[in-house]
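Thread: 2-phosphoglycolic acid complex, take 2
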Amino acid sequence: MAMHVRPVLAANWKMNNGPTAAAAFLDVFLAKHGACDDRTIILFPPALTLAAVQAGLAGRADIGVGVQNIHAEEKGAYTGESSAAIAVDAGATYVLVGHSERRHVFGETDDETARKCARAVQHGLTAVLCVGEKIEQREASETEAVVLRQLQAGLSALAPDAIRAIIIAYEPVWAIGTGRTATPDDAAAVHRVIRAALCELVGDDGHAIPILYGGSVTPANVAALLAADEVDGVLVGGASLDPLGWAAICAA
Ligand code: PGA
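Output below.
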């Protein structure tokens, strides 16, 4: 069953763009990108840049803002961390969970991604659960198993209605920041596996859950990726740091 999912274009700035740089970015980006209601655009700045992004977006309710991470616990003695409640209070409506850098640089486990997704939902944040295999896993033909394990684990603490409200991002680790993009066919093959798993969990509603592709997306390759089967949007790192390039991606 084919269902039209409104495209989602999401920018993951990672540890780039402080408040000053973000204001300059938005001046250029917003002048180029007029409001449009046929797609969802989300910016994920560093947490300390969130307020500046919100100030810069004033009057542009067409663009959503999220944080790149939350802690799984509600609150307490976790120096350096921010909770879902703090993210909401600061104006975030989305949160990335289980980004490959969280998993592979900071050692985040499947169990933590499950708890973070649950905490996000509890506070009304829309979680973007990121999954993806490493190159050695792809070469060992483990892509499907890894992605399904991360997906099922990440969603394991959610009720069906919460799963219906989630966003998934498939980001093969070997394609992130490497300039090596998955082909549209590579992406589609994994997105079909994810779609089938989502439909097993929530029935036909699984067709309406956005599945984004991420990994070296650029203005040059975004249209072909968005045209691929079951690709409902993109999560963009490096290429989202150039305001004009990001505007081109948002117009794709
Ligand atoms: P990239 O990063 O576009 O720089 O490859 C994507 C991501 O990590 O979300």
